[in-house]
Amino acid sequence: MGRIIGDGRIYFYIQDIAVLPEFQNKGIGKLIMETIKEYLKENAPEKSFIGLFAAQGKESFYNKYGFKKHEGMTGMFGVIQDNDVK
Predict the structure, then answer these.
(1) Is 72 exposed, middle or buried (0-12, 13-18, 19+ CB in 10 A)?
(2) Which of 35, 58, 81, 82 is surrounded by the fewest CB atoms within 10 Å?
(3) pLDDT over 90 at 29, yes or no
(4) pLDDT in tens, 31-83
(5) Which residues contact 49 (CB under 8 A, 6 or more apart)?
(6) Helices (H), 1-84
């Protein structure tokens, strides 16, 4: 499974690309990413920001679809704990 979240205008984030272990290495992740890329091609305006966080060791999978680390940009996140971002 995979999903895209965002504002539907200029910011899109690829979230939760997941394939059960017993189905990995069978082209399912590729199919998910190709479907997502086709959706973005049809729905995201030119120069939209498309972001994702890759699990460590999975960067090369996403590199094949044009995603790279960018100098000067740092991915960050927070988690709500006790009604505060930690």
Answers:
(1) exposed
(2) 82
(3) yes
(4) 999 999 999 999 999 999 999 988 888 889 999 999 988 888 777 778 888 87
(5) 10, 11, 12
(6) 28-43, 59-63
Q: What is the rounded distance in angstroms from the CA atom of residue 18 to the CA atom of residue 7?
A: 22
Token pair of 5 as six digits: 């979240």
CA atoms within 13 A on the CB side of 38: 6
- At the topology level, CATH places domain 3-69 in Aminopeptidase (3.40.630)
Whole-number Å distance between alpha carbons of 63 and 56? 13
Question: What is the token pair recorded at 39?
Answer: 């959706």
In this prediction the pTM is 0.79
